[in-house]
Amino acid sequence: MADKWDERKKAQEEEYFVKKEREQLAKLRAKQEAEAKEAAQKAAYMKCPKCGESLKARSFQKIEIDQEEI
Asked: Which residues have CB under 8 Å from 55's CB, separation 6+?
């Protein structure tokens, strides 16, 4: 009888941890998708107004600037 109880308890524990892992994975995927979407949007509007080439964010004296990629 104790063996069945232990097996049930182990099964419940495993089910709990599988559920938690799935939740964490779902959160990570959502975060990655949001970051990818944000990066794509940022890249889309960072174009040189003069020539249309892509711009890259750089730091200059603690100020972030957009500069043409070389």
From this structure: 46, 47, 48, 66, 67, 68, 69
